[in-house]
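User
Class, as today's exercise, I want you to study this protein, comparing sequence with structure tokens, and judge whether sequence predicts the tokens.
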Amino acid sequence: MAKRLFDLLLSSLGLAVLALPLALVALAIKLDSPGPVFYRQVRVGLRGREFRIHKFRTMAHDPGDRGPQLTVGLDARITRVGAFLRRTKLDELAQLFDVFEGTMSLVGPRPEVPRYVALYPAALREKVLSVRPGITDFASIEYRDESTLLARSADPERTYREVILPTKLALQARYVDRSGLGTDLVLIGRTVWAIIAR
């Protein structure tokens, strides 16, 4: 209950304080390329429930696109504004709406798409999905340049499944074991610092 109140308070405050910057981001996206402001994708959340995450759209809009779900390096689908949003992580700020709605938390394991969740070992799946997914966590900070790492691989899909995903799961399980207000504040601080340091 305390974590939910913390999330509700900070997401409300964030949406209010950032209303103008968020509106400017939305305007930039609309002026840069045709399509919706938000990108919605099905992710797996608390106790395995699926939901549609909010992100500011960073790629060219194609309703029929069934391209790869992994973004590798300088993906040709990324728009000019999208490249800036990804580099600064501003595209993730749209998830404040998800935190406010209660499908996500400010801090928690990053929600995955169903096809990768299907690869989770049973014990880790149960643990990682026992808490609300979050905007940031240990794994998010560790793999903040994930697309660049994948671009160096001859087989990005395999590298993600066999190298990155298991490490992410271990870090997410570590968060669940250490979850609490103190851990959340530390991770929020580390996330802000990592973005500023870029």
